[in-house]
Design a protein that fits this description.
alpha/beta; Bacterial polysaccharide co-polymerase-like; Rossmann fold
Length: 566
């Protein structure tokens, strides 16, 4: 685990993805809310109106023991089925003067009965508020009319049965009256007793007929008539917007996770540290400015490079792709180290897109290309920075194999730059785009990788790491730049000293004067690295060993060495 991984702590992967892809969450929220608004505008309006009907019992036996408990004579589930029948629906359609069929109307109505009650709740749904109220009231009226007809039929049937019994008893009494006129003795007494019983039954029937005629035949009544609703049915606008926003957020979350899983570009410091297997020297991404990296960040990175000692005197500044800010970082670090009173050489070994000379206001040629071809060694000086020497790229003509052809000469030059210098920074071509950068590895002691978030990919960084490690070149750390508009590219070059430099014959950098204008903390930091190792770096000795890069034999200009292949 790298230092950066330890610093991050146990942050869930999906949280990091949301930090990088929060735009998808915002987009999902906006789309969800807009979809909810659109649905509300284009969806057919729906209004619901309800009528409450109190049902009175159908008295099949008004003289029985159940007459005093109406709930025992009413089967409310049956009444719900009756109210939902096609007969009632057709009667409601007639009242509404509607050409809709009974089945069509039944699709708009819902009838329920609360438990342990004599109430029917009739709810009618329609696209118009007034039509919904009329439909509910029409169904209530049609149901009560149907129930009234059933009650009337029941009463008529009971009255008919009572009249039939009364006629039979009256005829029986007439027979008894006739018999009494002639019967004597015990028969007469029996006829009297029988006529008394018949009279009693006739009196009972007469009472029942009187009670039946006095019955209240009302089938029920509307306790709450339907009125046109003031708003649509269904979820409220607030609820609909909230649901749309929530669904949008969930969709945005899923899309963000999928995008993050399929996007191989590095988005944070942790991903860079994981891919390269090294620590990020500043711990956080840096923002490139017009004049390079922020001063404090440049000095902090410079001190870490100086602390590497003689084993890391010559450092390749690497990147996988062009436009990641590699040249700007080289110029910024060289400036910061020189301002701390140390001796540094900045070398432009990028012959494809050289830019280091522009950062210091120097002409591009003559420079390194001419030196490798046998010309005199040159370096540029910058006013106010006596500890800095700049070796420009020269007129390389876009040669993609310059370093490979002149590998021996380049290594000799690197040895000379290291003499009397505290640090040599070599700006190389992008490693994954130009194989010529590999030829600079034998001349260096370590590599410093520059990574632009949102541009480099994890696969590319792993390939860069594998390639560099295969050459035996250790990577001492990484500098991570924030995404966005980056200085140091061909379109937005870093300018540290505009028009204040000049080229001259090579000479080792002069030590900076002790009375420097550098901040106090910087001076302390410089003193802190000026120990026994510093004496070794300034003794004028060329480093004892350099790596050699296997190359094909017979390459021009390289005696006893091979040329790298693409």
């Amino acid at each position: 685990m790298t230092d950066d991984q330890a610093d991050r702590g146990p942050v869930p992967i999906w949280v990091s993805a949301l930090r990088r892809r929060w735009g998808w969450l915002v987009a999902g929220l906006v789309v969800g809310v807009l979809a909810a608004v659109g649905y509300q505008q284009i969806a057919n309006p729906s209004y619901e109106a309800s009528t409450q009907v109190v049902v009175r019992p159908v008295l099949t036996d008004p003289f029985g023991t159940n007459a005093t408990d109406p709930t025992k004579s009413i089967n409310m589930p049956t009444e719900v089925q009756v109210a939902s029948s096609t007969g009632v629906a057709q009667a409601a359609a007639n009242q509404l003067h509607s050409n809709r069929s009974a089945k069509d109307l039944l699709r708009h109505v819902s009838i329920t009965s609360p438990s342990a009650s004599q109430i029917l709740s009739i709810t009618y749904t329609d696209s118009a508020a007034a039509a919904a109220a009329k439909g509910a009231n029409a169904f209530a009226s049609a149901y009560l009319a149907d129930r009234s007809s059933r009650i009337a039929a029941t009463v008529t049937h009971m009255a008919t049965a009572l009249n039939k019994q009364a006629r039979s008893l009256t005829a029986q009494r007439k027979v008894l009256d006739t018999a009494l006129a002639t019967d004597v003795g015990t028969q007469h007494d029996a006829d009297v007793s029988q006529r008394s019983l018949v009279d009693t039954e006739l009196a009972s029937l007469a009472t029942q007929q009187t009670q039946l005629a006095a019955l209240d035949k009302t089938p029920g009544y509307v306790s709450a008539a339907a009125t046109p609703p003031g708003h649509r049915s269904g979820p409220s606008t607030t609820l609909l917007l909230a649901a749309g926003g929530l669904i949008g957020l969930l969709v945005g979350l899923v899309v963000a996770q999928l995008r993050d899983a399929t996007d191989d570009r590095v988005r944070d410091v942790g991903q860079v540290a994981d891919a390269l297997g090294v620590r990020v020297l500043t711990g956080t991404p840096l923002s490139m400015q017009r004049r390079g990296l922020p001063g404090e960040a440049s000095r902090a990175i410079g001190l870490q490079l100086l602390n590497g000692g003689a084993d890391q005197r010559c450092v390749l500044v690497l990147s996988g792709l062009s436009g990641e800010g590699r040249t700007a970082v080289t110029a910024s670090l060289a400036t910061a180290i020189a301002q701390m009173g140390r001796r540094v050489v900045a070398v432009s070994a990028d012959f494809l897109r050289p830019g280091l000379h522009r950062a210091f206001g120097l002409p591009a040629a003559p420079g390194l290309a001419e030196e490798l071809r046998g010309g005199p060694p040159l370096s540029g000086t910058v006013a106010d920075l006596p500890g800095l020497r700049v070796v420009t790229s020269g007129n390389g003509g876009g040669d993609r194999a310059m370093l490979a052809r002149y590998g021996t000469e380049f290594q000799s030059s690197a040895d000379r730059w290291s003499v009397g210098s505290d640090l040599v920074l070599i700006d190389t071509p992008p490693l994954l785009a130009a194989a010529d950068a590999l030829a600079a590895a034998p001349a260096a002691d370590a590599g410093l990788v520059v990574v632009a978030l949102g541009r480099s990919t994890r696969a590319g960084l792993r390939q860069l790491r594998s390639t560099v490690e295969s050459l035996g070149l250790p990577i001492i750390g990484a500098v991570v730049l924030r995404p966005g508009r980056r200085a140091g590219t061909s379109r937005t070059p870093v300018v540290i000293r505009s028009g204040r430099g000049r080229l001259e014959g090579w000479s080792a950098p002069e030590p900076f004067a002790a009375t420097t204008d550098a901040p106090a903390d910087t001076a302390i930091g410089a003193a802190g690295v000026d120990g026994p190792a510093t004496a070794d770096r300034r003794d004028g000795q060329v480093p004892a060993t350099r790596r050699s890069l296997p190359q094909p034999a017979g390459s021009p200009g390289v005696a006893g060495r091979d040329t790298p292949s693409d």
